């Protein structure tokens, strides 16, 4: 039987911030296996997995998982168990709907946003806690949730449902961090601001970063790599006394 190594689960790892975290973590911690999830673009996550493997990561696997589905989440963590003992979770998978005002929302839109961004993150964290908690025989570990500066701004006239979902993630992060602080688990959130990824195209405005860059004190949008650096710092031992933190990565806004 092949030697097992600790692993990190990264949800939504085929693009944007998730893919950047996988690459950065491969550079920083090649001794940490990676479980990368995808939903609709297998080719993209396969390419990321190939990059990570080429960087020398000890073990990599990809798993199709819609985090809004409890059965998918449970199957995801069972796959992680086969690769090695869990050490970390990056709760990155998320959706944003087309830009619209509240009066034009449907119940289906709201339900999907909350199912992926909130329920999905909580289900993944639940499975991580079950494995990491020293009270349940685990060795401790780290959970990093991806929130957004939208949680503070509310994103009026754009996607207040997305902003509300990230507000829930902020509260969830603080509560869970306190709940498991004495069980060897650190829980933090990174709150990206205006970041140049294809999530803006998903919202129907691919040029949104360029259009809004002047509102940022630093005068530009950020990159997925800059967010990934913060995520990987929180995963590292350098952040050993940091839990319940909401780390803004927004160029001053």
Description:
It is a single chain. The chain has 253 residues and is an alpha/beta fold. It is built from 9 helices and 7 strands. It has a 7-stranded parallel sheet with strand order 3-2-1-4-5-6-7, with helices on both faces. The longest helix has 26 residues.
Chain-averaged pLDDT? 96
**Could you describe the largest sheet, including whether it forms a barrel?**
7 strands, parallel
How much β-strand is present in the residues? 15-25%
How many angstroms separate the termini? 50 Å
Order of helices and strands: EHEHEHEHEHHEHHHE
- Overall SS class: alpha/beta
Indicate the overall shape.
Answer: globular
What's the gyration radius in Å? 17 Å
- Number of E-type strands: 7
What oligomeric state best describes the polypeptide chains here?
single chain
Number of helices: 9
pLDDT < 50 runs, ≥5 residues? none
Q: Report the helical percentage.
A: 40-55%
Q: Biggest sheet, strands in spatial order?
A: 3-2-1-4-5-6-7
């Amino acid at each position: 039987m092949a030697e097992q190594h600790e692993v990190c689960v990264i949800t939504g790892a085929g693009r944007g911030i998730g893919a950047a975290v996988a690459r950065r973590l491969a550079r920083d911690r090649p001794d940490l296996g990676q479980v990368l999830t995808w939903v609709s673009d297998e080719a993209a996550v396969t390419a990321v997995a190939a990059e990570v493997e080429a960087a020398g990561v000890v073990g990599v696997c990809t798993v199709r998982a819609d985090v809004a589905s409890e059965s998918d989440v449970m199957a995801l963590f069972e796959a992680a168990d086969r690769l090695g003992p869990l050490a970390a979770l990056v709760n990155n998978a998320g959706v944003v709907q087309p830009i619209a005002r509240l009066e034009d929302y449907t119940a289906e839109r709201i339900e999907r946003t909350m199912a992926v961004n909130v329920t999905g993150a909580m289900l993944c964290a639940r499975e991580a806690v079950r494995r990491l908690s020293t009270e349940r025989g685990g060795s401790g570990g780290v959970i990093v949730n991806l929130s957004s500066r939208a949680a503070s701004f509310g994103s009026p006239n754009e996607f207040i449902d997305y902003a509300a979902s990230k507000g829930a993630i902020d509260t969830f992060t603080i509560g869970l961090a306190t709940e498991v602080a004495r069980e060897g688990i650190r829980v933090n959130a990174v709150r990206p601001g205006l970041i140049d990824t294809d999530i803006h195209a998903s919202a129907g405005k691919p040029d949104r970063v360029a259009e809004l860059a002047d509102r940022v004190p630093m005068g530009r949008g950020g990159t997925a790599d800059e967010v990934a650096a913060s995520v990987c710092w929180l995963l590292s031992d350098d952040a050993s006394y940091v839990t319940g933190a909401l780390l803004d990565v927004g160029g001053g806004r």
